[in-house]
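Shipment paperwork, digital attachment
Item: protein structure file
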Amino acid sequence: MVQLEKDTGLLTSMRTTRAIRLLKSDPGPEALALKVGQVGTYAPSGGNRQPWYFVAVMDASRCQKIADY
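Attachment content:
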């Protein structure tokens, strides 16, 4: 097992993250949606194809239409 000299916030987050079954219905800030999309591009992809396409729906009525669909 590799011992890390200094623990990072990422490793702490990975060790302590739990599944979330119920999410809040209030929208988050647009800057957060942009950051999540940006960080999501670092996820691995098969053959390093990186076929990323993100859609952030911030309008409540549009979110409801998607949920109904």
